[in-house]
Design brief:
Elements lengths: L3 H19 L15 E7 L6 H14 L3 E8 L6 H11 L7 E3 L12 H7 L13 H10 L6 E6 L3 H8 L10 H8 E7 L14 H5 L1 H10 L4 E4 L1 H4 L3 E2 L1 H6 L5 H10 L5 E2 L1 H11 L5 E3 L4 E4 L5 E4 L6 E6 L3 H14 L5 E6 L10 E5 L20 E2 L6 E5 L10 E6 L9 E6 L7 E6 L10 E5 L8 E6 L6 E13 L7 E4 L3 E5 L3 E9 L8 E5 L5 E5 L4 E6 L3 E9 L5 E9 L8 E5 L7 E5 L2 E6 L15 E8 L3 E10 L7 E7 L8 E6 L4 E7 L8 E6 L4 E8 L2 E7 L10 E4 L7 E8 L7 E12 L3
Parallel strand pairs: 1-2, 1-4, 2-3, 4-5, 5-6, 6-12, 24-30
Antiparallel strand pairs: 7-8, 9-12, 10-11, 13-22, 14-16, 15-22, 16-21, 17-20, 17-22, 18-19, 18-21, 23-25, 25-28, 26-29, 27-28, 29-30, 31-34, 32-33, 33-44, 34-43, 35-40, 35-44, 36-37, 36-43, 37-38, 38-39, 40-41, 41-42
Helix pairs in contact: 2-13, 2-14, 3-4, 5-6, 6-7, 6-9
């Protein structure tokens, strides 16, 4: 039970919050010192969209900082995996005892995109929605125990749970009916709902309010406390999520939820996070609010806000610039601390998303068939042509990961694997370590998943299953399982790097992998520092991995440091001159998260580029790529053969470019090809261009490309032999006014957490011939 002093403090906090909400245009400094924590109950339809999982992480981060006290969470759909998913998220973030309730109605919004997979892969108590308490009963139980006017309810889904609460009768928890109980205990309902002030022309009713029109209307008309609405227009365009994949461990469940919904390392609009943030912190500098009025729910859940009759409703109005608000939300989501946990995580889980590379020898079902053994689907398979075949997975960008066990799932055919060796390598297969050997294994059923133990659980970059002697091989799924253990009270005793000396050229890169000991230490976070950034920079690309990039010739030291600063490990770095030919320069546009590199050897440029796109998307990923170019004035043509290209995404790009500057909104013209073998011409005249693209046809690699500039005209060609160019494939008229401009080779991954590599040979940049 709380003391009277605590109750007064909590009531004071909520009163201040309400004052901030009730005063039109009121703001508070985003750096204002927090008061006592705000009591929060979250009501979520966890599963249909990943912003719910983002709101859960954000609330845990606010709890870590002492700003929020999470009383309970509710699932407002009939999905049997909603409550287990919420429970798994709470357990991961170190609060396994948060009570979780669920809607007990049958058949209401059963579909989901990720909640089952999250629940099945992370520890939790609630095995099924049937095991969770009824949300209405849990609401009444939790609210009855709280001081008066001390709770903020955060609703980020349909409002059926809240309508049921209002209708509830007195019970053993409280002699008050539902509406009176809410009036007594709740200070604010923060609701993601509606388009405010009304549904825009051409749009339908907002999703949350439309799912149960009757419940939405009941809450809008009968909820007895102030309601603050964050409409669809508020969260739209606030793109967050990628930093959770970039900065957090690979096994972070929010990264998984986002990955399963939109792709690993990508962003999603942040409707639900805004509701949770304003419920705890108030308006601050983030938003303004309207004067008090009434939000009426009409046909099919369409809403209209008016200032006539006053029911204590308000809605948010944008104030802080979106990029700053994105940073606030992502700072919180990425900083939520993982608690004690034990789980097995498949290091190849995101191979389907281009994170890591699957290859095989003698695939029967096409060159890309190896991915089908790592695509999280039991209805696809890798099928080998010969008994002596292999399939392998390589971790991206030089990362090393430790698999202590592995899983093989049989397919619907009868050609199960029988004899194999599991191998590991840290030098791209030049040498191998045997991790496990199996003979005469039997799969008793179709779709059976069997797990095996690795005799050596050291971290490796490349894992290969080598089959021999016996029938052909058919495999539905392969999992490489890393044991994750974080135990409360276990501190870091040692920190080691996989390399203590590095040599790389200017514009080259290398990956460092840190090992935190003991492996079950609670906080394994590592930061990285370069002693001389003008010589070499270092950038973290995950929990315990970093990329060192050569800037200038010389020597420096790269240090890895544990979060508490007590343990360090050092690597001596020597940077040698660039391998690029004279006049060619490597540069990166708009700071891709994973640094790329450029190496020239024997007439071939190998260019590795990160980044999300070469197009106008949202501001943070507006043109991100690697560029190797020369400054050139006047009319000229650049030609090159694109020999190879790795598949970080079907939309990765490699090709030729003319570009004015390195600014992310610079004017450019590009002739490129993607891993789906689509050749295209794209350009930007000005900052409002949406990346127009002229498709030029399908071409297999290797392919010769030529992009010719003559005044303001750019012409694209392709050739099989680099001699016969034929007719132009396409052209574009677009003035690049700044001289000299950059002309060169470009690569983007179209995938934030990793890179793509393309090789170019027969490269020539020369003035146009008369």
């Amino acid at each position: 039970m709380r003391t009277d002093v605590s109750s007064v403090a909590l009531r004071s906090t909520l009163i201040l919050l309400l004052l901030a909400v009730q005063m039109p245009g009121a703001t508070g400094s985003s750096s204002s010192p927090p008061g006592p924590p705000v009591n929060v109950i979250l009501d979520s339809d966890i599963g249909p969209d990943c912003d719910d999982a983002g709101a859960v992480a954000l609330l845990h981060a606010l709890s870590d900082r002492g700003e929020a006290n999470i009383l309970a969470m509710m699932c407002c759909t009939s999905s049997e995996w909603g409550a287990p998913c919420l429970d798994a998220l709470n357990t991961y973030y170190g609060r396994p005892n948060i009570p979780v309730g669920t809607l007990k109605d049958a058949g209401f919004l059963l579909d989901s995109s990720y909640n089952r997979l999250v629940a099945e892969r992370y520890p939790h108590r609630i095995r099924n929605g049937r095991d969770a308490p009824d949300a209405t009963v849990l609401y009444r139980q939790v609210l009855a125990r709280q001081p008066g006017k001390s709770v903020a309810v955060v609703a980020i889904g349909p409002l059926r749970n809240l309508a049921r609460l209002l209708e509830s009768e007195p019970d053993q928890h409280s002699p008050l009916g539902g509406r009176d109980l809410v009036a007594a205990k709740v200070a604010l309902l923060s609701c993601m709902g509606g388009w405010n002030p009304a549904v825009p022309k051409g749009c339908g009713p907002e999703w949350n309010l439309a799912q149960d029109e009757k419940a939405s209307r009941s809450v809008a008309e009968n909820w007895p406390t102030p309601i603050l609405f964050s409409g669809a227009e508020i969260g739209s365009g606030i793109m967050t999520g990628r930093r959770v994949a970039l900065d957090c461990p690979l096994y972070n469940p929010l990264a998984m939820a986002i990955g399963l919904y939109v792709g690993y390392g990508r962003d999603r609009e942040s409707w639900d996070q805004t509701v949770a943030l304003v419920a705890v912190r108030g308006l601050r500098d983030y938003w303004k609010s309207t004067p008090s009025g009434t939000n009426r729910i009409g046909d099919k859940g369409a809403n209209t806000f008016t200032t006539g009759e006053d029911r204590g409703h308000r809605y948010l109005v944008r104030s802080m610039p979106i990029p700053q608000l994105e940073d606030v939300i992502e700072d919180l989501m990425a900083s939520a601390k993982g608690g004690p946990t034990t789980l097995d995580f498949d290091i190849a889980f995101y191979c389907k998303d281009g994170f890591g590379t699957a290859t095989a020898k003698d695939s029967q079902n096409g060159p890309d068939a190896a991915k089908q053994a790592f695509d999280r689907r039991a209805d696809t398979a890798w099928i080998a042509k010969t008994p002596d075949s292999w399939i392998q997975y390589q971790c991206p960008d030089g990362r090393n990961c430790a698999a202590s066990r592995y899983r093989i799932t049989s397919w619907r055919g009868q050609n199960d694997p029988k004899n194999w060796v599991l191998l590991g390598s840290n030098d791209s297969g030049a040498s191998w370590v045997t991790l496990d050997t199996r003979s005469n294994e039997i799969f008793a059923a179709r779709g059976q998943a069997r797990e095996f133990t690795c005799g050596n659980s050291a971290p490796f970059n490349l894992y290969r299953l080598q089959f021999s002697g016996g029938p052909l091989v058919e495999i539905a799924e392969i999992g490489l399982l890393e044991r994750i253990e974080s135990v409360a009270g276990v501190d870091v005793a040692d920190l080691k790097l996989d390399q203590t000396m590095l040599s790389l050229p200017v514009a080259g890169r290398a990956t460092l992998n840190a090992s935190v000991l003991p492996a079950n230490a609670l906080d394994k976070s590592v930061t990285w520092v370069s002693s001389d950034p003008p010589v070499a920079t270092v950038k973290r690309i995950g929990r315990n991995h970093a990329v060192v990039f050569g800037i200038g010739t010389g020597t420096c030291t790269v240090n890895a440091v544990t979060r508490d600063g007590q343990k360090t490990a050092a690597c001596q770095v020597t940077v040698t001159p660039s391998t690029l030919p004279p006049l060619w320069v490597y540069e990166e546009v708009n700071s891709p998260h994973v640094p790329g590199c450029a190496i020239y050897r024997d007439g071939t440029f190998a260019i590795t580029g990160g980044g999300m796109a070469i197009q106008r998307w949202w501001l943070r990923v507006w043109d991100q790529f690697a560029l190797v170019s020369q400054r050139t004035p006047g009319d000229c043509a650049i030609t090159a053969r694109v020999a190879t290209q790795t598949v970080s995404s079907p939309e990765a790009m490699a090709g030729l470019m003319f570009r004015e500057t390195l600014a992310r909104d610079s004017r450019f013209v590009m002739l490129g090809i993607s891993p789906n073998r689509e050749l295209f011409l794209t350009w930007r005249h000005g900052p409002n261009d949406e990346g127009p693209r002229l498709k030029l046809g399908k071409y297999e690699l290797p392919i010769y490309l030529k992009l010719e500039r003559q005044g303001s005209n750019f012409t694209a060609y392709a050739s099989r032999d680099g001699v016969s160019w034929g007719k132009p494939l396409g052209s574009h008229a677009g003035e690049l006014s700044r001289e000299p401009i950059r002309a060169g080779l470009c690569v983007t991954a179209h995938n934030n957490p990793t890179t793509s590599t393309a090789t170019f040979d027969h490269v020539n940049l020369a003035p146009n011939q008369p």
